[in-house]
Amino acid sequence: NAGVTQTPKFQVLKTGQSMTLQCAQDMNHEYMSWYRQDPGMGLRLIHYSVGAGITDQGEVPNGYNVSRSTTEDFPLRLLSAAPSQTSVYFCASSLRPRTYSNQPQHFGDGTRLSIL
Amino acid sequence: DQQVKQNSPSLSVQEGRISILNCDYTNSMFDYFLWYKKYPAEGPTFLISISSIKDKNEDGRFTVFLNKSAKHLSLHIVPSQPGDSAVYFCAASAGGYQKVTFGTGTKLQVIP
After folding, report:
1. Would you call A34 an interface residue with chain B, using a CB distance cutoff of 8 Å?
2. From the CA atom positions of chain B, what is the Rg in Å?
3. pLDDT digits (tens, 9 = 90+) for A61-97
């Protein structure tokens, strides 16, 4: 049972380059999210998706693009990398939440991205 | 505007004693709260949660308390074990909505 798989685990980019962070889950979860973790800032939501074909912005969406063509995959694209995007990126998935409840998110192990 | 705050960046506790991690929130619309645990180089893993219709939830050594009037929740770990050493994140959401807001985390060190 793979859960949430993120690739690559590490990446170094030059300013202005573009790249795609991959995220795949095999639990048939409807909800998927991308977070970035920075020192002293906790986890901040970048983009999320409530199902295939549906995406929405989170707290810090600028400079990032997402799409959800299948239930399993939720790639995050950096359009033109900037040093401020140096961070650890986590992808997460969960089932649909219920009333007065929520569904715990399952996280991948992260992608550590450095922008020079 | 930090809607979920964990004011203690770090905490050290002796093995066998109680660990208490605190979390405050400002958004009165939050009605579901979760705690996640994170080891270095791994993603966060779900630990325990509580709905706003309850004030306490237990799961083994872990208990979460919610004080809605004070907009405060706490995670108690009893007894603390060295394997509990990790960063703990408090998280909150509103109305069954999966958009989750995380706190900044508290690094717990359990000393053998």
Report:
1. no
2. 13
3. 999 999 999 999 999 999 999 999 999 999 999 987 6
